[in-house]
Design a protein that fits this description.
The complex is a heterodimer of chains A (217) and B (213).
Chain A lengths: L2 H11 L10 H22 L3 H8 L2 H24 L13 H22 L9 H24 L6 H20 L9 H21 L11
Helix pairs in contact in A: 2-4, 4-5, 4-7, 6-7, 6-8, 7-8
Chain B lengths: L2 H4 L6 H31 L3 H20 L5 H17 L10 H26 L18 H15 L3 H12 L4 H8 L3 H25 L1
Classes of the chains: A mainly alpha (217), B mainly alpha (213).
């Protein structure tokens, strides 16, 4: 008997029932619904909504907020699709339009700030607080997404976790807006970019962890 | 064999082939359905269905791998990699979807992985060519090399017994610490210490000699 036949025999002997993964969109929806429920509850309890509603009346802010949130949603959905072997790799482009809009709108906010405050806009201000908030919030969210995505044992974990990391960072950035009642300066923007990259890098580093066997039923 | 012979020697065979090709497509679809059904059973823990599925997909995977690898061993190793991956992610297959694209995606990935490993190994290794070979006869070795060897032998002889043994076993005969320890009865730590001291002494002796020279 050849080694390949031997392998087939041992794999067949090990064929315990497995729990099939539900369709990626369903899994992404459940995950995002849980995220929105938790963040919605926290923002309500901490009284962040009354200050947020009037700010949303400003069109540039509303656009930035929507672009950030949609980037988070689409990146998470894309990551769930990309984690499966037979889904198109083009899912990676799903968050791209909103990501570009997010970058453009925060860049615009930054530019306006520069016009209004001039070089004063270079102040570090409360960036460090934001950074701490951003990272602290990203950790549990990233872990939750990481565990959900890893159930598929993706063939290309680096790509999946990079897109997932973008999703986590965008969702954290959208949440941060509730507790970030001032315009972004160029320094804030740089801090945000660094924080986003950190989250993406951490998720990608996580993808290097040894993989687990599929869950038994 | 001429080109004419290789194409369809009998008039009308081309038509026959195209007629066969259509049922071939239908057969491929049928096969996909069959494999999808077997995989669904396998996901539910049916050992026999799973064995049959793996046995049936193996020649297909071999064909897939053979397109990229020339070495038969590479092909077989790749097929085994693919089977292992299929096994560990069989829960990601959705029985509502066709089976082959799922299988081929896994297959392609593993084939590429093996090509990467192969090209990485090629980068590190150099093929042994005729010009790399030398002769054991003295005339091919330079006078300098001989005198170096003599110097080293003399330096070795001036080392204390334990250090000389450690160097001989570990450096000259390239034994492992464990083997050297078994051969001498010295502990691994003692061997390490002896080697370290011996290297230091040798360096000192050889430095002194080269200064004298």
């Amino acid at each position: 008997m050849t080694a390949t036949q031997d392998l087939i025999e041992s794999l067949a002997a090990d064929a315990k029932p497995v729990r099939r993964l539900r369709p990626p969109l369903a899994r992404a929806t459940v995950w995002l619904a849980a995220f929105v429920a938790v963040v919605g509850a926290v923002t309500l309890v901490t009284g962040a909504w009354p200050a947020m509603i009037p700010r949303l009346e400003s069109a540039p802010f509303a656009v930035e907020m929507a672009a950030t949130f949609v980037t988070g949603l689409t990146a998470v959905i894309a990551a769930f699709y990309l984690s499966l072997p037979d889904r198109s790799r083009f899912w990676i482009f799903l968050p791209l339009p909103s990501l570009l809009l997010w970058l453009a709108s925060s860049g615009y906010g930054c530019y306006r700030n520069w016009i209004v405050y001039g070089p004063q806009g270079w102040r570090l201000g409360r960036s460090s607080d934001c950074f701490v908030f951003f990272i602290t919030m990203s950790i549990p969210v990233a872990i939750a997404l990481y565990l959900a995505l890893r159930r598929a044992l993706p063939l290309d974990p680096l790509r999946v976790m990079a897109v997932g990391g973008l999703g986590v960072a965008a969702l954290a950035a959208a949440t941060l807006q509730f507790y970030h009642p001032f315009d972004v300066t160029i320094v804030d923007l740089a801090v945000h970019v660094v924080a986003v990259l950190l989250v993406v890098a951490a998720m990608m580093a996580g993808s290097r962890m040894p993989s687990r066997r599929p869950r038994r039923r | 064999m001429t080109a004419m012979n290789r194409s369809f020697p009998i008039a009308g065979l081309a038509e026959t082939v195209s007629v066969i090709a259509e049922p071939g497509e239908a057969r491929a679809e049928e096969q996909d359905h069959a494999w999808a059904r077997l995989m669904r059973l396998a996901q539910d823990g049916d050992h026999a269905a799973y064995r049959r599925l793996l046995t049936e997909i193996t020649p297909y995977l071999r064909g897939l791998a053979a397109r990229q690898h020339r070495d038969r061993r590479d092909v077989e190793d790749t097929v085994q990699d693919i089977l292992l991956t299929v096994h560990s992610i069989r829960h990601t297959y959705d029985p509502e979807r066709p089976f082959k694209p799922w299988l081929v995606a896994i297959g392609r990935r593993r084939i590429i992985d093996r090509i990467r490993v192969y090209s990485r190994t090629r980068l590190r290794e150099t093929e042994l060519l005729a010009e790399h070979e030398t002769f054991s006869a003295d005339e091919t070795n330079t006078y300098q090399a001989q005198s170096d060897r003599r110097l080293l032998r003399e330096a070795m002889e001036s080392l204390p017994e334990g250090q000389r043994e450690a160097i001989r076993l570990l450096k000259m005969e390239e034994k492992s610490l464990k083997e050297a320890s078994a051969a001498t009865g010295m502990s691994i730590t003692a061997l390490k210490v002896s080697t370290h001291r011996a290297m230091k002494n040798l360096r000192k002796i050889l430095d002194r000699r080269s200064e004298d020279a």
